[in-house]
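Hi there. Long-time user, first ticket. I'm pasting a complex I've been working with (about 493 residues overall). I'd like to know whether the download I got is complete or cut off, because the file seemed smaller than I expected. Thanks.
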Amino acid sequence: MDKVIVAENLSLAYSKDETIINKVNFSIDSGSFVFITGASGSGKSTLLKSLYGALKPQEGSLVVAGVELRGVSRSKLNLLRKHTGIVFQDYKLVKEWTIEKNIMLPLIIGGYDKSIHQQQVDKLLNHVRLKHQSGKYPQELSGGEQQRVAMARALSHNPVLILADEPTGNLDEYSSQLIWNLLEGANSDLKSTVIVVTHHIPESMTLDYKHLHIEYGSIHEVS
Amino acid sequence: MKSLRNHLSLVIALLSILFSLQTFIIVERSIDAYKESLVSNYSLVIVSQKNLTLKEIKKKHTLVSDLLPISPDGVIKKLNAGISKKSMDLLKLSLPKFYKLKLQHYPTPNEVHNLTKSLLRNSSIVKVETFSKSHDTTYKLLLLFKTVISVFAFSVGLVTILLISKELKIWQFKHTERMSIMGLFGAPIWLSSAILFRLALVDAFVASGLSFALFSIIASSDWVMEQFTNIGISVVVFDPIRDFGMMLGVAVLLSTLLAAFIVISHKEEV
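Hi, the file is complete. Here it is re-exported in full:
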């Protein structure tokens, strides 16, 4: 099976003398569903940031979808991000845009035909049960609703890779289930590779998944 | 409402820069026009032992525009009583030649001084009268007026730059988040900053438009024209094509620089 992510002797750090991830090796198959767990401060979110190029490897090699992220050019990184859907812990929605426009963002950036923008947005708003809120601004929604918008945005351009950082962190049961259903749907229907950073793997998971655990700067696979 | 307030703050800052710039231009034009009117009334008087020609004078003194002989007939007539015609002709011949020297533009005191020195180097010129006292007073008044207006324009400019730098911080805060989010989804710089540049251009056009309206009203005001007529000058207060072009250029340049600075100083958050 093709590897969508290959890390070799990968070290990650925010400053020279504080290494978070220390010389780890791992790979992720294309089309797989992966959970990354670990205690608070173990480096889960740091690893995820490195996968979309927000944090460059300090040492070693990190190849995502065929793009070596160490010393990657801005144009190559942009290209990679255009095919990646990211769900942030703090949602990162554009406050001055309606939720409709927020969901459209990856379609606008990807240069998709305008005729499919509204079609795709309507479909996703139905999936996240927010059709009736389409004209509202993010700050008019609850935390759970904002997270559902962030999820819809991450899926709007049918990305090959979905990265989600604590997507159900503070959500109620209903919103959490919606999010997991969407992620599972993207993995099974769209064949997207899904990588989720979380504290708890949901018991309701129906798909096979890979589980990576981070501890003391190392990564190991939990069988 | 909040968005309108954000627009207004840059529009007002640009408007005050354009206002002080155009005011400075009007003052410059007024001073130039006043100098023009002064130069037509101002001339030097030179006394020469020989006849002088304009060609000869202009060759060495480019500031000179015309050389007009002053006839001594009026003075001679007063001495006429009891003097024979032969003696009168002899007197006429022995009198020095008087000339009025017209200049290209209203000279600075320094130019008057240099011209006098240079004219006196000509051995036939024995005296140059510059009427320096009245000339210097007028010139210094003009200079004072210009300095006061320049200081005023500079102060307004300085305050406006402070306003714009405050605006810069507001814009940085307001636009950085959106630009970062767009960047995280792969937007190139030109796309993530497009809104910023569009806003900057809209504000530049609005400020230029408002300045255009303001100065068109001022230029068509009877009261303003009356003031210029009173001092005997005619000034183009506002040239709708050239001045508006200059205003638009300055406003677009400033607001684009502001937007460019935000884009350059933008860093992706980690």
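A couple of notes from our side: The CA atoms of residues 135 and 142 of chain B lie 11 Å apart. Chain B is about 70% helix and 10% strand.
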